[in-house]
Amino acid sequence: MPVEFLSDDQASAYGCFTSGFTRAELERYFFLDDVDRGLIEPKRRDHNKLGFAVQLSTVRYAGRFLDDPLDVPAQLVEYLAEQLGVADPSCLKSYSERDKTRLEQSGRPTDGRSSSTSRPNWASGSRAGPGPPAKDRRRCSTRA
User: Fold this and answer.
1) Could you give the CA distance from residue 81 to residue 87 in angstroms, rounded to a whole number?
2) pTM score, two decimals?
3) What span, in angstroms and rounded, lies between the C-alpha atoms of 37 and 20?
4) Mean pLDDT of all residues in the chain?
5) In terms of Cα–Cα distance, which of 16, 32, 58, 26 is closest to 125?
């Protein structure tokens, strides 16, 4: 007999972002260290750098990739852009225009290969983890 251990509200909020963060929360969960920057730097365009940083932050905080990687609070995008020196955070909109880039950077297979050979080790840092407890998360519809 299946047992539900999450309420409907908790289940719908799992793996989602809150509608806003304090500066301390941004610094705690979304600070890009030297290893992160080393992964991001090879990306050529600002929207790819920022999109990659958003995906990296998403998987660390929420414990999964979002179906729509742009479905994150604008405040988070601005914080990541500030760290990367990206002058126009709205450039992130261009990130989803090419599905293959988005899928390649998330580690999802794009050509039928198994995910074990194509998925980067996102959670290799000491800060890896599912983020704060589900009770601290809100609805996912916080599009930047």
Assistant:
1) 7
2) 0.65
3) 24
4) 75
5) 32
